[in-house]
Specification:
Family: Belongs to the glycosyl hydrolase 5 (cellulase A) family.
EC number: 3.2.1.4
CATH topology of the largest domain: TIM Barrel
InterPro entries: CBD2 (IPR001919), CBM2/CBM3_carb-bd_dom_sf (IPR008965), CBM2_carb-bd_dom_sf (IPR012291), GH (IPR017853), Glyco_hydro_5 (IPR001547), Glyco_hydro_5_CS (IPR018087)
Structural class: alpha/beta
Protein name: Endoglucanase
Keywords: Carbohydrate metabolism, Cellulose degradation, Glycosidase, Hydrolase, Polysaccharide degradation, Signal
Radius of gyration: 23 Å
Number of helices: 8
Number of domains: 2
Strand content: 15-25%
């Protein structure tokens, strides 16, 4: 489980004033990443992230953690679902980017990945953490997704206020990042690296020992360290984006609430970029800097601004002061690298809706990677439940309108045989894949493409299961079963399947996977 922040604290008076069905395009021969994540490597232009053609793109992604922990690889590889089906599921839901945390421990020679179910993921058994990372990156690229690597921790023991520790000096931090930059050079799936996760204050001001911004001390000034680390990465791979998080308190020390000295504005670990405008990060290559902030709900920590009588109208001013001004002033892009909640407090859902509205929609909005896919994040939970399959619809429904699906869509890969359905508006093709099977059950995906001339609105997909099989859980639609026939209907927020578009639904079922699901129909028309 991810260890979380013990948070500083008070917002200064000045700042206080100041899932479901996802319809994706049918697979085509378009260039890789041609939809929401663009084509080729990424760069920046003012506050926008642009692809190799100069077209503005937006990353709407998710965090899949574990490589920063003692397991040294992705969590959930122990589940009764394959790692590939999890990536499929992320893409099906509309997440076009993976932010992958790691610790330097996972990169050591002889590092061993643990927590792998050798029945569901036999192809990962015996591989090193880096070899598993290679496979996930390759497959994510096949789905049209992008990857941002996140140096989350110096060791698997936990977060660190500074970017280095006695056991992991700055030289190791830089050496490992440049190794990764060279390893994935030429692979346009991996577009950048988040240099260090959540640099933050330590000690009490004026006896600060944590990460400051612009204080000039090379041992504590995160802005200067980001320049050293970022330029080293660019020397190894000039195509990468350099993602630089904020601090918590610009001085690097927590406020002393008992003295009479006015306290500086402090916020979430990694979330305070209030000094970046006056003291910017200077990289050797222009157009590669992306700032990054984190923001969380009251269920993670009870920040003072949640008690403001003006809540939630006060939130945009807070975000403006901490990081949003960089985007609004066209200074640089800001990636909201982490934000999440259990939604246990009623204010959490209000916060999440306001935050997404603030980020904007479409390619004109700010990029983000939600925390997290994993259900085992103790303070936020995940998009999927403990089975690593069932979607938390309360969260997904809020996020869904802001997601830009990857170009490759989320349907299973491979070369299933399809043939045209009968002509007319309801004609379709279909593909069925068994993602996993075990004694007494299986997991499968059914993908349908509307090859007719008019939209299916609302769309409905039906198919038959082997005798005795019963759907246990499903995603990307509303499931019902009568005898051996399963019907999946579109949810209210995504009802139309345009000509040439595809819908992919997934499910787990009891019973045998032989014969596989068949007799697929789209709105009653047979898809062979």
């Amino acid at each position: 489980m991810r260890s979380k922040r013990s948070l500083a604290v008070l917002l200064a008076t000045a700042l206080a004033a100041a899932l479901a069905a996802v319809v994706v395009p049918a697979l085509s021969s378009a260039p890789a990443h041609a939809a929401g994540t663009g084509t080729g490597y990424l760069s920046t232009s003012g506050a926008r992230i642009v692809d190799a053609t100069g077209t503005a793109i937006r990353m709407t992604g998710i965090n899949w953690f574990g490589m920063e922990t003692d397991n040294k690889t992705f969590h959930g590889l122990w589940a009764q679902v394959t790692w590939r089906s999890q990536v499929d599921h992320m893409a099906q839901l509309g997440y076009n980017t993976l932010r992958i945390p790691y610790s330097d421990d996972a990169l050591k020679p002889g590092a061993v990945a643990t927590g792998i179910n050798d029945y569901t993921n036999p192809d990962l058994v015996g591989l090193s953490p880096l070899q598993i990372l290679d496979k996930v990156i390759d497959y994510a690229g096949d789905k049209g997704m992008r990857v941002i690597l996140d140096r989350h921790r110096p060791t698997s023991a936990g977060q660190s206020a500074l970017w280095y520790t006695a056991a992991t000096p700055e030289s190791t931090w830089i050496a490992n990042m440049t190794m990764l930059a060279r390893r994935y050079a030429g692979d346009t799936t991996v577009v950048g690296i988040d240099l260090h996760n959540e640099p933050h204050a330590e000690g009490t001001e004026p006896n600060a020992t944590g990460s400051c911004w612009g204080c000039g001390d090379p041992a504590r000034d995160w802005r200067l360290a980001a320049e050293r680390g970022g330029n080293a990465v660019l020397a190894a791979n000039p195509n990468w984006l350099i993602v630089v998080e904020g601090v918590s308190c610009p001085s690097g020390g927590n406020p002393n609430v008992w003295d009479e000295i006015p306290d500086e504005p402090c916020g979430w670990w990694g979330g305070n970029l209030s000094k970046a405008g006056q003291d910017p990060v200077r990289l050797s290559k222009p157009g590669k800097l992306v700032y990054s902030a984190h923001d969380y709900a009251i269920s993670v920590y009870h920040q003072s601004w949640f008690d403001d009588p003006a809540f939630p109208a006060n939130l945009p001013g807070i975000w403006d002061g901490f990081w949003g001004y960089l985007f609004k002033n066209n200074t640089a892009p800001v990636l909201l690298g982490e934000f999440g909640s259990t939604l246990q407090d009623p204010r959490d859902a209000v916060w999440l809706r306001e935050l997404l509205r603030y980020l904007g929609s479409g390619t004109s909005g700010q990029s983000f990677t939600y925390w997290s896919w994993n259900p085992n994040s103790g303070d936020t939970g995940g998009i999927v439940g403990d089975d690593w399959v069932t979607v938390n619809q309360a969260k997904q429904s809020i996020l869904q309108p802001y997601l830009i699906p990857p170009a490759g869509g989320g349907g299973p890969t491979g070369s299933p045989t399809t043939s045209p359905a009968p002509g007319g508006p309801g004609s379709c093709t279909a593909a069925v894949r068994i993602d996993n099977s075990w004694q007494g059950g299986f997991q499968a995906a059914v993908s349908v493409t509307n090859t007719g001339s008019t939209a299916a609105n609302p769309w409905s997909v039906s198919f038959t299961l082997p005798a005795g099989a019963t759907v246990q859980s499903g995603w990307n639609g509303d499931f019902s079963q009568s005898g051996t026939t399963v019907t999946v209907t579109a949810p209210a927020h995504n009802r139309s399947l345009a000509p040439g578009a595809s819908a992919s639904v997934g499910f787990t079922s009891t019973g045998s996977s032989t014969p596989p699901p068949g007799s697929v129909r789209l709105n009653g028309a047979a898809c062979t």
